[in-house]
Design brief:
alpha+beta, 24% strand, 192 residues, four-stranded antiparallel β-sheet, 6 helices, globular
């Protein structure tokens, strides 16, 4: 089973030091009842130009993306959807995250009865400078069912877009909607 959850900053991430225990001090889930209020406050503070967060992608046995993968959340979602479009056209999709420069890759694995995806996150070693965490966290990868991956990504992206539309406005919503429309059009064409 695949789960995808978007979290948004609720505290300045410049001071965020990744531990499994303290993420709730820094991030709030879109599903939290206070998320709209908290996020609007953050957006107003940054004059609508910066909103950081993370998309957590995990299966039953592997956490593929984690809170250490935080970045500009609008650009992260745009990158994920662009990566999906690239994958649909070529069988491989790749995206470098804006702030932390992590590389996310999806690659088609042809199998029967259903195709699978190799999902890989390769992290920038510079963010671990001065720690011994890089060896543990330098790369995460897992094989996922292609249909389930696309379905869950599109559902989570749609939830993010709906959430984002309720907030202090910024131009990235139009780009997100355009990408969603293109992906869904391509899906419709493939099913014919």
């Amino acid at each position: 089973m695949l789960t995808i959850t978007t979290y948004i900053e609720q505290k300045n991430l410049d001071s965020f030091y990744f531990t499994k225990e303290n993420f709730q001090d820094y991030f709030i889930s879109l599903n939290d009842t206070l998320s709209t209020q908290v996020v609007n406050r953050r957006l107003k503070k940054h004059k609508g130009h910066r909103l950081e967060g993370v998309v957590i992608i995990q299966t039953n046995d592997t956490v593929m993306t984690d809170f250490m993968d935080w970045d500009d959340i609008d650009l992260m979602w745009i990158g994920i959807l662009q990566m999906m479009l690239e994958y649909k056209k070529t069988g491989v999709g790749k995206h470098f995250m804006a702030i932390n420069n992590h590389e996310w890759t999806i690659k088609k694995v042809i199998t029967n009865p259903e195709n699978l995806i190799l999902f890989r996150v390769k992290r920038n070693p510079l963010i671990f400078e001065g720690t011994n965490l890089y060896k543990i966290h330098k790369e995460t990868k897992n094989v996922i069912n292609e249909k389930e991956f696309f379905s869950e990504i599109l559902q989570a992206a749609n939830e993010f877009i709906c959430f984002r539309e309720k907030l202090f406005k910024i131009g990235s919503i139009g780009k997100l909607k355009e990408l969603m429309s293109e992906i869904q059009f391509d899906d419709h064409e493939e099913r014919k």
